[in-house]
Amino acid sequence: MPRLFVALHLPEMMIAALQPLCTGLPGVRWSLPRQMHLTLRFIGEVDEQRSQQVRATLQMIHGIPFDLQLQGVGQFPPRGRPRVLWVGVQAPPALFQLQSDINRTIIEAGCPSEDRPFAAHITLARLKIPPDAAALRAYFERHQTFRTPTFTAREFILYSSQLTPAGSIYQPEAVYPLPV
Fold first, then answer.
1. What is the four-CA torsion angle of 16, 20, 23, 28, rounded to 10 degrees?
2. Could you tell me if 139 and 20 are in contact, meaning their C-beta atoms sit under 8 angstroms apart?
3. Which residues pair with 174 in a beta bridge?
4. Beta-carbon count within 10 A of 10 CB
5. Which homologous superfamily is 3-161 in?
6. What is the pTM of this model?
7. Which helix (H) or strand (E) holds 44?
8. CA distance 15 to 125
């Protein structure tokens, strides 16, 4: 059964801008450049019939292109032992409207609703064992002013994800343009 999610692809210049953030903490599993994206909705494992329903309902979404900027770094959960390091996203209401529309259509296709509210971010790293608190503090201080130029999101993508010992492999399954 395919494992699916919907995301925005990041342009190469954004992925290159993120690479300096993916270093400086020992024992951290950094995201590979090919894995970097902005998840709009995780779907999970679905059978082929449900996968086809998801594809069809996503075609009904009529969003508009919008500009995004990557800015700042943080952690999930926001307090306590970190499990994820992320870079934030400055985005207009159009991003949140698109995410809401995608979420609604995924539910209409028979998939369960998300159990967490949407938080626009790019995952930089996953942490099994948190780094030393002083090292983590220094990392956040070093990167607190991180900011990229804006880029325009012109499409969203349905991806499948295959888990491997070397990390997840993402395959685009369908591309949905955001017409002008």
1. -50
2. no
3. 158
4. 21
5. Cyclic phosphodiesterase (3.90.1140.10)
6. 0.94
7. strand 37-45
8. 14
Calculate what percentage of the chain has a pLDDT beyond 70. Answer: 100
Q: What is the DSSP string of 75-113?
A: EESSSSS-SEEEEEEE--HHHHHHHHHHHHHHHHTTPPP
In contact, 42 and 51? CB cutoff 8 Å: no
The per-residue pLDDT for range 74-98, each reduced to its tens digit, is: 999 998 899 999 999 998 999 999 9
- Listed by start position, the domains of the chain span 3-161
Residue type at 166 in one-letter notation: A
Name the 3-class secondary structure at 8: strand
- Scanning the chain, the segments in alpha helix (DSSP H) are 12-18, 48-58, 93-108, 133-143
